[in-house]
Amino acid sequence: MQKTRFTEAQIMGVLRKVPMEGGVPAVELCREHGVSSAVLYNWRAKYGGVNASLISEMKAKAEENRRLKRMFADVSMQNRAGPKHW
After folding, report:
1. Which of 13, 18, 43, 44 is deepest in the core (most CB within 10 A)?
2. Contacts of 43 by beta carbon, 8 Å cutoff, 6+ apart
């Protein structure tokens, strides 16, 4: 999976500038930060209602989930292989 070149803090900064009514148009904001409108849309979907403190918590939960899935996969493979005979 490709890493983003923006940190969560930078993403939150860009999203704060997105106008609800009036202000700088989203197209100008995308051009200013060098992202496409699709990226901006994805950021709004993922981080729209989240404050900065929850982002680090979400990241920690995702990392823990990844670790637990890997542990489960390892145990499943060991069980499929059958018992070890010495």
Report:
1. 43
2. 11, 14, 15
